[in-house]
From TrEMBL:
The lineage of its organism: Bacteria, Pseudomonadati, Pseudomonadota, Gammaproteobacteria, Pseudomonadales. One of its GO terms (molecular function) is transferase activity. SUPFAM superfamilies: GST C-terminal domain-like, Thioredoxin-like. InterPro entries: Glutathione-S-Trfase_C-like (IPR010987), Glutathione-S-Trfase_C_sf (IPR036282), Glutathione_S-Trfase (IPR040079), Glutathione_S-Trfase_N (IPR004045), GST_C (IPR004046), Thioredoxin-like_sf (IPR036249). Residues 1-82 form the GST N-terminal domain. It comes from Pseudomonas vancouverensis. Residues 85-214 form the GST C-terminal domain. This is Glutathione S-transferase family protein. Belongs to the GST superfamily. Keywords: Transferase. The keyword Transferase applies.
Length: 221
């Protein structure tokens, strides 16, 4: 039975699953959902995922949303080292939870403020952007320290934590987030691009999708 993953190739959340599934060598079908055409809110899509967001995985009777949950499902199903055994598993989960609650959340708000509002022709709120940047910088300072002398987030092997924590880099060129103030973070991000072909490949596809889609609105970055 073919695994289907629903998503828009411009979505950083979809990219987490897309890249992890490719990295694990899983055969799957990509079912496109065009977010800019509002397809995530269409009745047919809401019937699959009432939350109205991508990615969504359909594997027979299993229907899952939330990229981290999908990645955990796939890593367990295919017994992938992306979800290590022993204490490293709980460290991986620790960073995935941290990423959701304290890290990616600010990049999502920033994307809405900087890009979403631009599409709607509304000015960004500088106070809100300042608040977001303050939070990103304080979290990035801690992450930068954690990464000093380390190859990846957990130990010296790629795990699902790397995909979850690296996700905000998907939109960095467009949101102009100041991750470049943090040398260990930048070195780790480059290492992921150099050593994880699926991360590099999905970056190129995501950038292409975003650049073309926004050019249609007369927006360049
Ligand atoms: N917490 C979710 C976030 C999913 C999400 O926000 N997806 C966005 C694209 S990156 C989406 O589908 N937005 C469509 C909408 O809000 O209608 C996850 O990690 O999968």
């Amino acid at each position: 039975m073919t695994i289907s993953i629903y998503g828009d190739s411009g979505s950083g959340s979809f990219r987490r699953v897309w890249a992890a599934a490719k990295h694990m060598g899983i055969q799957f079908e990509h079912t496109p959902v065009d977010l800019l055409k509002g397809e995530s809110q269409a009745t047919e899509f809401l019937a699959i995922n009432p939350i109205g967001r991508v990615p969504v995985l359909v594997d027979g009777a299993t229907v899952l949303s939330e990229a981290s949950a999908i990645n955990l499902y796939l890593a367990e199903k295919f017994d992938s080292p992306l979800l290590p055994k022993g204490n490293a598993r709980y460290e991986t989960l620790q960073w995935m939870f941290w990423s959701a609650e304290h890290w990616r959340v600010f990049s999502s708000y920033l994307f809405n403020e900087r890009i979403g509002k631009r599409v709607m022709g509304v000015a960004e709120d500088p106070t809100l952007v300042e608040f977001i940047f303050t939070n990103i910088r304080s979290n990035a300072a801690m992450l930068d320290q954690h990464l000093a002398g380390k190859t990846f987030i957990v130990g010296n092997q790629v795990t699902l934590a790397d995909f979850d924590v690296a996700a905000p880099f998907s939109q960095m060129a467009r949101t102009k987030t100041p991750y470049d103030e943090f040398p260990n973070i930048m070195a780790w991000q480059q290492r992921l691009l150099d050593e994880v072909p699926a991360w590099k490949e999905t970056k190129a596809l995501l950038d292409d999708r975003m650049d073309r889609a926004f050019a249609a609105f007369g927006i360049t970055f």
